[in-house]
Amino acid sequence: MSTTAKPTVKTYQNYINGQWVPSSSNETFAVYDPSTEEVIAEVATATARDADQAVKAARAAFDSGPWPETTAQDRGRILFKLAEKVRQNAAALAELEARNCGKPIVEAEFDIADVATCFEYYGGLANKVTGSVNPVPANALSFTMREPMGVAAQIIPWNYPLLMAAWKLAPALAAGCCCVLKPAEQTPLTALEFANCFMEVGLPPGVVNVINGVGEVTGAALVAHPGVDKIAFTGSAAVGKVIVKGAADTLKRVTLELGGKSPNVFFADADWEAAVDGALFGVFINQGEVCSAGSRILVERKIYGKFVEAMTEKAKRIKLGPPLERETKMGPLVSKEQYDRVTSYLELGKKEAKTATGGGRAKAFGKGYYVEPTIFYDVNNSARISREEIFGPVASVIPFENEGEAIHVANDTPYGLAGAVWTRDIYKAFRVVKSMRAGIIWVNHMQPTYVEAPWGGYKQSGFGRELGPWGMEEYLETKQVFVNLDEAPIGWY
Ligand code: ADP
Ligand code: MG
Fold this sequence. Notes:
Elements: E1 10-12, E2 14-16, E3 19-21, E4 28-33, E5 38-44, H1 48-64, H2 72-88, H3 90-101, H4 105-125, E6 132-134, E7 140-148, E8 151-155, H5 161-175, E9 178-182, H6 189-195, E10 208-210, H7 215-224, E11 230-234, H8 237-248, E12 253-257, E13 263-266, H9 272-284, E14 296-300, H10 301-315, H11 336-352, E15 354-357, E16 374-377, H12 384-387, E17 394-400, H13 403-411, E18 415-416, E19 418-422, H14 426-435, E20 440-443, E21 458-459, E22 462-463, H15 468-473, E23 476-484
Helix pairs in contact: 1-7, 2-4, 2-5, 3-4, 3-6, 4-5, 9-10
The chain binds adenosine-5'-diphosphate and magnesium ion.
């Protein structure tokens, strides 16, 4: 009587106007576990018609209520309840996140804790938004009101699925906007599970909708839709450019958090152990699938050889494994598509530079999109592996002779999301901080991210800022009100 046990394949629909609804075309798409390559869920595809329904629901909730009547204080309370739901379900959400995107469970647990913190932060900020009185002449009163932008379409990536949803939803709801969230088609599961609690916490129907499908169809329908006021996007620079063009016809407000090729700069006087660790952490955390990955490692010539050796020795000991094992420090890449993309860069890297370690598939695994942590060295900054975002566990190590050259190479990229500098010399550290053209700079660390501090890029890493009060600003309009206090006619005609 034994049958081979297949994991249950759960089915999900789209969440529109407070209800779970099937696709108008009845189509579904498969969602995978990248460590087994097995299907773990089937999700309803949102067609352009379904996207239209979601936007209409958000529009109605925004334009005619009850959301406009919900006080800022009550919006804050709803956000606190969302945080509480996340904390109550943290273990299950972390496990689902790790299974769906391949990240180590320990990292997924940090992500989910950050999700709750993000909702709490914006819950507290919801009723701190105030206008100002403007110093116009005495016979008038001018003040500013801050009003929600309206309906926000929020298109997010697969590397931090629920955390990116939180970074988008929390400030938008705090500001009083209504949302249509489109998770990445590779990793929609945690956002869909999360949507189950929206009614319970008192989010009225239509205030948050979650729709699924590939970017070119579902995402593009949102970008083109005249009922959408604002697009918030996190993803690749290539798609960011498509979105800006698509949003032009209706002049939607757009914020973009795109890719990077961030420099992680090491001077010879840096704390040795911390530096070697920081170089690896900067580029290999989350399998290198991080927009701010320190994928260009710039090392002062005096320590260069030894530094590459020390990094290599430690990188070889990084524990690859199934995402749900607690000792795992690196899981599989998210998808076959990403695996192919990264391994093609590995082939290129072997031609463009020298290989210190890695360079291919992690052979210990029969199944799953596992890639070895890879270090290329003697990389020329004009090489493609030094200029293009790989979004995988691939480091390009580049030597430099002096501070001036370090700064030049650090900035010699179309991107400007992040950068880091390691030294014990505070004069040098802050000179480099001032010279780097990037939105986030770390000194003697790389990657820590806090909800209280702004996140976003310079140059082709996008525009707008997330997190902190900056994140909520992006969902607010400014209305100027002029009140005439002078009862006499204008007297012009
Ligand atoms: P990747 O290349 O790693 O898949 P993308 O930038 O393509 O990263 O994806 C990030 C998000 O953007 C996903 O939710 C995806 O569905 C969406 N997306 C992709 N293409 C488009 C598009 N043309 N219009 C709108 N959204 C898109
Ligand atoms: Mg894509």
